[in-house]
Amino acid sequence: MSGESLDREVPGSSEEARGRLDELRQRIGAVDEELIRIIGDRRDLVLEIGRVKSTLGLPVMDPGQEAAVVRKAARRARSLGVDEEMTRDVLWRIIAAARAAQEGKSEWGPPPPPEDPEGEGREGQEGS
User: Fold this and answer.
1) What's the rounded Cα separation, in Å, for the pair 97 and 70?
2) Distance CA 102, CA 54 (A)
3) Which domain does 83 fall in, by range?
4) Count of domains forming the chain
5) DSSP codes joined into one string, the chain
6) Measured between alpha carbons, how far is 102 from 55 in angstroms, rounded to an integer?
7) Which residues are CB-neighbours of 43 under 8 A, at least 6 positions away?
8) Residue 123 domain-assigned (yes or no)
9) Is 108 part of a structural domain of the chain?
10) pLDDT tens for each residue of 43-101
11) Is the pTM of this model over 0.90?
12) Within a 10 A sphere around the Cβ of 42, how many other Cβ atoms?
């Protein structure tokens, strides 16, 4: 794994523990940002592959290639000490979304937030 070791001794005082908790949460936030960026980069590459496949007259779905990608990732996960099954699950989900986007069946993204005619739930309001 990368970055600073997470196997530090648990802080003794509540104040130290709270500080460590905040630090870890900030690091998770940074990792989440990177993960989101990487998913977006992968999406862009997959959509470009779809355009190239279309130009070549190739089908969107390539089960052999998809399985090879997942197997390779699972091997890499194992070598890094990451849960292989979770890695497979995440990649299959990303591949399924990418395939649907290539086939024009989805925009590959979440639905827009529901309209809020009464203005409730806006960011920045107290309690957010």
Assistant:
1) 14
2) 9
3) 17-102
4) 1
5) --SS-S-PPPPSSHHHHHHHHHHHHHHHHHHHHHHHHHHHHHHHHHHHHHHHHHHHT--S--HHHHHHHHHHHHHHHHHHT--HHHHHHHHHHHHHHHHHHHTTS--SSPPPPPP-TT-TT-TTSTT-
6) 13
7) 97, 98, 101, 108
8) no
9) no
10) 889 889 888 999 999 998 889 999 999 999 999 999 999 999 999 999 999 998 888 87
11) no
12) 14
User: One-letter amino acid identity for 11?
Assistant: P
Which of 41, 60, 42 has its CA nearest to residue 50?
60
Give the whole-angstrom CA distance, residue 36 versus residue 14.
Answer: 33
- Distance linking the first and last C-alpha atoms of the chain: 33
Could you tell me the two tokens for 4?
């600073």
Provide the CATH number for the domain around residue 92.
1.20.59.10
φ, ψ of residue 37 in degrees (nearest 5): -60, -45
Q: Quote the tokens at residue 43.
A: 């999406």
